[in-house]
Amino acid sequence: RFCLPLVLASLPTMATGEEIPPALQDSWGDFWLFRFVVNAAGYASIVVPGFLLIQYFKRRNYLETGRGICFPVIKSCVFGSEVKSAHQDDGSLPPRVEPTESSTARQVLKLLFCAAGLQASYLTWGVLQERVMTRTYGATETDPGEKFKDSQFLVFMNRILAFTVAGLYCALTKQPRHGAPMYKYSFASLSNILSSWCQYEALKYISFPTQVLAKASKVIPVMMMGKLVSRKSYEYWEYLTAALISVGVSMFLLSSAPNRHVSTVTTFSGVVLLAGYIIFDSFTSNWQDALFTYKMSPVQMMFGVNVFSCLFTVGSLLEQGALLESVRFMARHSEFMAHAVLLSVCSACGQLFIFYTINQFGAAVFTIIMTLRQAFAILLSCLIYGHAVTVVGGLGVAVVFMALFLRVYARSRMKKRSKKLPPGETPVQKV
Asked: Angle formed by the axes of helices 208-216 and 104-134, to 10°?
């Protein structure tokens, strides 16, 4: 809750630093496609041996023939300890705790606490994300300063703290018995770190408001992935709101303004990176939804995914020699160190607020809060970093958020209707 006031108090320093045009790259090695290939090669050096080991243990029927001190570890990683649950209405969401004998004032205070926590965590995270990726550090009158370039290190910082927080939470609280094979988390982990990398890298080429609107439009690829991965079907209003979101985003992207700030110029690289973010993130959510058919809590999911995220990112950074280089940059610029740490804290705290809010008030209330957060994030970014938005672009933003609220309303109506269905009838699955 206290992160946002600290950021607002430091707004003069947040906007400082000379912005470097995205077209100016120090070398071909700084080009995003090269970095993506190098990172992917680093992940492959861990994934391929792991895949071969899993196939080896399965072919040897290790579950029945194995023994020794390594048997429990290999069993947990490759085979798991429980079968999937036979029925699960909505495995992606934790069981909601209905308030019992709780006063209205207490519920209102709890809701305000959740809303404030989510807004402070993710608004601060957005402001810091744009500061780190688009501004220089150590700039003086004679020295333009230097820019931090390694998005993968920021992903690693976020994941290591999230892994620590989730691990401590699981150790200190009672959790369901874990039964999923650990290696299955690696798929969601790999797509998650790639989506996060694309998200950070895209800010070198596009504005933060553009990125926020593109993230709002990921409803469309999520629906497509849902059809491919989970064989889901959708209602007509879901296709309607997806179309409205597409129209609103197109209006914003195609709008033009005179004397636009250099950071608001949308480049082809930025569009490709945003598309990569949306595709990877859509796969992550659908794969996690499938994993929830095993009996687990959301915090266990958070822990399992971040275990592999830390392994992949630290392995790739060490292979490239980028970990030491990033630590040196951090040592040279204490301001960057503070920003990177606070960025990770906001990311980890935000995830915990997500779980708590959904658990207390349900997914509809959470979605409304996060939709408002996206609108506030665009406004805050324009105020701090001077992004220009035209009238057509503003109308596009309004169309997007109108479609998002319409989606929340229609979903809540469908949920109420599904509760009234006679036994044996099942409602259409929704994302």
From this structure: 130
Question: What is the DSSP-derived secondary structure letter of residue 60?
Answer: T
pLDDT digits (tens, 9 = 90+) for 27-39: 666 788 999 999 9
Interior angle at CA 426, CA 424 and CA 431, nearest 5: 165
Q: How far is CA 106 from CA 103, 109, 112, 311, 350, in A?
A: 5, 5, 10, 42, 22
Residue 317 has which token pair? 């950074």
Provide the residue ranges of all domains of the chain, joining segments of one domain with +.
49-79, 106-136+149-230+263-361
Residue 141, classified by CB atoms within 10 Å of its CB into exposed (0-12), middle (13-18) or buried (19+), is exposed
The pLDDT of 276-292, averaged and rounded, is 86
Among the listed residues 406, 408, 298, the one whose alpha carbon sits nearest the alpha carbon of residue 355: 298
Contact yes or no for 128/346 (Cβ under 8 A):
yes
Q: Which two tokens stand for residue 28?
A: 């071909």
Q: What count of other Cβ atoms lies within 10 Å of the Cβ of residue 115?
A: 20
- pLDDT tops 50 at residue 260: no
Q: What is the DSSP letter of 138?
A: S
Please give the pLDDT value at position 5: 46
Q: What is the pLDDT of residues 363-386, one digit of tens each?
A: 667 877 887 888 888 888 888 888
DSSP letter at 146 equals B
**Nearest one of 343, 246, 288, 384 to 93, comparing CA atoms:** 288
What is the four-CA torsion angle of 166, 167, 168, 171, rounded to 10 degrees? 120
Strand residues in 340-430 grouped as ranges (E): none
Coil, helix or strand at residue 137:
strand
The least confident of 94-108, 186-200, 233-247 is 94-108
Distance CA(300)–CA(290), nearest Å, equals 14
The total number of residues shown for the chain amounts to 431
DSSP of 220-276: HHHHHHHHHHS-----HHHHHHHHHHHHHHHHHHH---TT--GGG---HHHHHHHHH
